[in-house]
Sequence to fold (714 residues):
Amino acid sequence: MSAEPDGPEDRLRRFATIWSRAVFPVTSTSSTRPEFEAQLLPLARRLSEVLRARGFDAAEARAVGAALVDAHCTDPEALSRTLDCIDAYLVLYCGEDGDPEDLRARSARLQHAMAAGFAGALRARTLAEQEAIAQAALKAQGVVAEALHASEARFRAVFEGAAIGIGIADLDGNVLQVNEALMRMFGVAGPTLGGRRATEWTHPDDAPQTWRLYDELVRGEREHYHVEKAFYRPDGTVLWTNLTVSLLRDADGTPQYQLALMEDTTERRLLNLRLRYEATHDALTGLPNRSFFFERLEKALSAGPGQRFGLCYLDLDGFKTVNDSLGHAAGDRLLVEVADRLQACATAPGEMVARLGGDEFVALTTGPDTRHGVDELAARIMNALLAPVSVDGRELTVRGSIGVVEGPAGERSPAEVLRSADITMYRAKSAGGNRFELADPEADARVITRHGLTTALPAALERGEFFIEYQPLVHLGDGSVRGAEALVRWLHPQHGVLGPDRFIPLAEHTGLIVPLGRWVLEQSVRQARLWRERYGEGGAAGPLRINVNLSPCQLTHPGLVQDTVDILERAGVAPDALCLEVTESALIGADDDLLKPLRRLAEMGVDIALDDFGTGYSNLANLRRLPVSVLKLDRSFTQSMQQFPADPVDLKIVEGIVALAHSLDLAVTVEGVETGAQAEQLRILGCDTAQGWYYARPGPPERLHELALVDATG
Fold:
């Protein structure tokens, strides 16, 4: 099946073409460029999948980096050109339909993972080569020993023709002979190295065991040893080698000479150091990256007794606006300037600054007393951000929110510390930003509990942990029970019964409010059918009705009307048994598209109640265009009526609202009725129905049965 013109496959192939053209000139391969491009195409497809995957797969990106080594792209320039190509073109050709900022962040993480994979594969390849050299060295040892015993001519052929450096010294360390390869490695000619002593070649970076192994060898206690060793060349530069030293014995087995075999690993070591730097530092700012920071933080947290740490977690306020308005290039220049200022703030011993990603930075300080030091560090950072940053001729104001965590080492893990700092930073941002806040364990616990409830919501619905309580709606004129409001509760396994204020906002944030609301509606309508079967469809009190709250998310859900119709039909309940309550704030400024489903439900016979009326500051004239039949007056207007005499202003307001509602053929329900005096005053003012603790607290449906039975029997 061929891809459409300029489709995803075409863009992927363009990226592979650009990649191959950039890397092919520095690749040691016998393939032609088209053949090399065919090798890169599946790697490009894997990169595209990593970029667009729901979760970032660092292992897959590292595998692509390792695959480059298998494709003979071992030159350092090949990796550099690959990373430049990915940075410039991967998001452009393979990031369709994604958030640009998120894709660029993913691309940066992908590049770091690729560099790490490339370094790991190159290191594995190096180790394999070293093993082969070691085997060759042992073989050369046997060859040289045999040549010494058999024929000077054969030894000379091996000695002079070897591609690795070979030197022979006596047991006192006096250098007797070196071959041409060894002289080239040291950059000298002629017998310059002859006459020197092996013990003169010490270097500050020598491993502690290097000279211990040497002493054991010349004493005849070991046959050979292998180490990585640095040497100073005559011009002062450093030569890094894989050094194998073997003991040569005479025909009687007496130690006589030592044989040194050297492989020049200087360029390979420099490449590994460069790859290590690129894998542990941010490509844009040059600061340590997330992985390097976690290494340092873990080390700081595992320090001995008496050591402490302080951490400042910084997030720039409004950085997305810079990217959106001026472009990502301007945003990058802003980040570089911020990074430079932060680095200037953390110059004391035990301090470091790192970039975690995006516009998030972290500063770490360690030592025996960081209580005041971390506060001073946070203050320095805030002061460093005061001066505007000039980008493309514009003076940009930089603001930041910082979460500060300080404490003794050894008590928390790096993940726990960073989570606390992140929570604290968002608390600073919620307080207006441009400030730093100290971590508060109680605030952390509340946020963690909130997150735990959020993640537990889907499973709670599946396990049936929700239940419904019902609060009666009473007619103020005759005191009869006219129905009830359904109020959902969560029986949490650890936290007990939770009210809707604890989990409904979480359900709205996650979108779970739609299936939860559908479940509440279904259970409530089924209960309404049971009530109507028990008390009949008519009578002096009229049929019992169920009120169900409708969240703003449900109001905009396209399946609202059909779900309601299906639930009513399955339960065999008429639409007039249901009243949907919508908060006034949800309908402020509502357009016709938002009101259309409510109008359809109202036309079917479902009552629509405007809940919390009086708190949304809506224009009273808007009531004429809303498809509502009931106003639920907020309790804030009637609280003063619990005492005698009531506030005359509140009386006038309620009287005016009731008169307006009745003139529009709207019924008025009052919430929060707690005293008989309050109920009587509301009856005098003309309110129709009420609910509150004066009549009954929310409870199981059987309680409504009892109230209705008392009402029926007088």
Observations:
- Residues 1-5, 538-542 have pLDDT under 50 and may be disordered.
- The longest strand covers residues 238-249.
- Residues 301 and 409 are 4 Å apart (CA to CA).
